[in-house]
From TrEMBL:
Protein name, entry field: Thymidine kinase
Annotated catalysed reactions: thymidine + ATP = dTMP + ADP + H(+)
EC number(s) per entry: 2.7.1.21
Family per record: Belongs to the thymidine kinase family.
Top-level EC class as recorded in UniProt: transferase
Residue ranges of the TM segments: none
Entry keywords, A to Z: ATP-binding, DNA synthesis, Kinase, Nucleotide-binding, Transferase
GO molecular function, one term: ATP binding
One BP annotation, GO: thymidine metabolic process
Any matching Pfam family: TK
GO cellular component terms, semicolon-separated: cytosol
Residues given in the record as substrate binding sites: V170, V171, I172, G173, Y184
InterPro entries: P-loop_NTPase (IPR027417), Thymidine_kinase (IPR001267)
Length: 226
């Protein structure tokens, strides 16, 4: 039976890489897929991974109807055994419902990939609908790490190097960008709550105001902050 699966994790945990690997593995066994994405950093109609791989994709727009798209393809003699959908957090909720229809009515597997929460720790509407409708939600095994070494569970946005908690939900960007741009950093919940990025932690560790002893609530010096 076909299934709707949501592969989720923070930014930079390998979702797009897994999407490309899944497409490769299915195609290697003679299955035919359609790749969709929306707002990939590499540009329109592209699915790209930080490991350097990229492939062409159908760019998802507001008016794209997944069910109609696939039915049209099949009616024209085309074939689709599975769909790969990257950056699915940016899909509209009714588009996630269309994906569920593709699974249930056309018996086609749909593999979706995306982050669950935004920089304010709020669910993206598309991700919320995926959690509600998916047969399975899979959390990626490769753990992105907070600067403290704990598993990163949340995405922080920085503007000019400073963590912000207000602004538009969607701003396309990347981790490890220069400090005058909008950027992102993955953090554990503790450090997201304290708004403590690698740069803030480094500054605090260097500050002469910080006593060399303290309560058990102190944070360690950043391990990989440069
Ligand atoms: N130079 C590198 N060497 C090995 N692995 C890397 C390198 N650069 C990035 N990666 C891996 O790629 C992952 C990011 O992959 P990507 O598919 O772009 O993530 P996502 O789609 O979740 O944002 C990182 O977590 C890391 O494991
Ligand atoms: C947290 C957060 C992220 N985004 C954007 C930034 C990137 O363009 C994508 C995530 O891509 P990745 O492949 O998972 O790294 O989402 C956003 O628009 N708003 C946010 O709050």
């Amino acid at each position: 039976m076909a299934e709707l699966v949501f592969f989720s994790g923070t930014m930079d945990c390998g979702k797009s890489t897994l999407a490309l690997q899944m497409d490769h593995n299915h195609a290697a066994r003679g299955r035919q897929g359609i790749i969709f994405t929306r707002n990939d950093r590499a540009g329109a109609a592209t699915l790209s991974s930080r490991l350097g791989l990229a492939t062409g994709a159908v760019e998802v727009t507001d008016d794209l109807d997944f069910h109609a798209h696939v039915v049209q393809l099949l009616s024209g003699g085309g074939r689709a055994d599975y769909l790969i959908c990257d950056e699915a957090q940016f899909f509209a909720t009714h588009q996630i419902d269309q994906l569920a229809r593709v699974v249930d009515e056309l018996d086609i597997d749909v593999y979706t990939f995306g982050i669950t929460t935004d920089f304010r720790t709020r669910l993206f509407p598309g991700s919320q609908r995926l959690i509600e409708l998916s047969d399975r939600v899979e959390v990626l095994q490769v753990e992105a790490l907070c600067w403290c070494g704990s598993r990163a569970t949340h995405n922080a946005r920085t503007v000019g190097g400073v963590m912000v908690v207000e602004g538009a939900q969607v701003v396309i960007g990347d981790v490890a960008v220069s400090s005058d741009e909008v950027g992102y950093e993955v953090l554990c919940r503790r450090h997201h709550r304290r708004r403590m990025t690698a740069a803030t932690a480094r500054a605090a560790a260097l500050s002469p105001d910080v006593l060399p002893f303290g309560s058990g609530d102190r944070d360690p010096a950043p391990q990989n902050a440069s």
